[in-house]
Amino acid sequence: MRRFSIRSRTDELVLAFIAFFLFFVATNTQTGWLFVVSSLIGGVLAVSFFSSRATLQGLRVRALASAPVFAGQTARLRLEIENPLPRTRRYLTVSAGETPVLIDSIPAWGRIVAEVEVACPRRGAFPVPPIRLYSATPFGLFGVTRVQRPEGELLVYPRGPRLEHTGLMQTAPRRAYSARTHNRAGSSYDLRRIRPYEPGEDIRAVHWPLTARTGQLMIREHQETSARRLSLVLLNGSASATGGEPPPLELAVEAAASLVELGLRQGLAVRLLAARRGKLAESTGSQGHTHFELLARLTAEALDARRSCAWRPRRPSLKARCSSWRPRPWASQAGRKPAANAWA
Q1: In this model, does residue 332 exceed pLDDT 50?
Q2: CA pair distance 99, 127, nearest whole angstrom
């Protein structure tokens, strides 16, 4: 979308009145220098009017890929401005918000890349904001603004309060680890026991000092290694706010973002489940941007579209499970009651 707007200020009106007044006086008094002065003022106004408009004519703006930011931060949006005409454009500004950026010149048939700042107060996936090109070349009169809406997306990650610790991640993984791996053999560095050797086992695990004392092959058996995992589930519901408070959906997303950030800092394998576009979306792994992108793209409509799930609470809620074993498929756990102190 392209739109021109020309805003005449008080300066232009005053100069036009002075030029007309001098021309009127010169006509009645036949004073030559008044004709010259009124003509010069009129020429300045004419040049300003057409030059500022010609400076922006034909310019094309394209939004380049920009790095995602967190809510509350300022994004730096990269724009490519192309000049398709055989004349140099000089002294224009480009902005996407409050702070404009000055561009000295754009060469003929050339293009430049400019960065503008965009305030991002809340999370989400937003279209690129309108880009405003402004020119008042060469005398600062008859400023012209051209508005373009380039295609593109600006991704804003959610940000919740920073958590230093939580009982969920401190107690549940330890109890689960003790219950599940205390009596299971594995390949960690924690020694479980020394037992007689059985055919087919790795000879590198033989405990040679005890073998020499007993005269029988003895082997070291270690505890099972088990990665700690954090599973988060964002359930659907109403996303309307009441009493001036933040919407329940936003509160749940911020809580999930805080837990994801804490889990990644503690080296947990994070798994996030949420409804998106009528399907159950999942992000796994230790890369934070995949989880934050899923949270950023969540909308109330996407959550309400999840009709195949058994749980349908009235308000969006967050379920978190921290464990030291791989969770079973979600479908198999839908009808089971969570263990004590495993959910928060």
Answers
A1: no
A2: 19
